[in-house]
Structure formats: C-alpha cells, structure tokens
Amino acid sequence: MEHISSSVRELIGKVCPVLPLGLAVKAEWKEIVGEEMSLLSSLSEIKFGMNDELCIIVEVLNSASILFKCSFPEIKDKIYKITGYAIDKITLIIKQVSSIDREYKDAA
Hints:
This protein is an alpha+beta fold. Helix content is 45%, strand content 22%. The chain has six helices and three strands. Strands 1-2-3 form a three-stranded mixed β-sheet.
C-alpha cells in the first residue's frame, strides 16, 4: 500500500477519526511487525475501545501467536511512532486463524 499524504489523512480524519489511523498503520504494517511476521499476520481492524483505547485487532496464524505476543512492546512502540497514540492506550488483540485474509476491513 502506498503512503497516504498528510492532507488526505487530515481530510479523512475530520469525517472518521479512526480511519486515518487505520490507513497509516496498514500502510506501514510490514515495517511495524517485520517482514517475516507480516507473512504470518494481517491487520484486521482498528477501532476505539473503552477508556479511549486504540484497539488493534490482528489476525495471526495459530502457530505464530506466541511469537507475535512476545513482540508486543516493540509493535506498540512502532504504532505509537506512527499514530502518536499513547503506548498505554494501545491494545493489541490477537485473533488466531488458520489462514490469513489479506483484505483490510473498514475501520469505521
């Protein structure tokens, strides 16, 4: 996915604040989790949770879920650098799957 210009991101952000965050994270997913882990995982959706948390739901192959959990601190730090959202307000939720669907679901 190509990088999204900041002006387009700002325009979308006025309509739906979680959408530009989802697009920014999706565009950088391979850099966030690393090349090998990007083959074993897929960003499913991003939404706001309770207490203004940023909930990121990630589909991970069953066999890689423990390895993915071990990378949580580094992944959260990289998401923080992209979105500016506080690390303690970022929640990663793993959805174990048997195969990876590469199509991004609407964040709204």
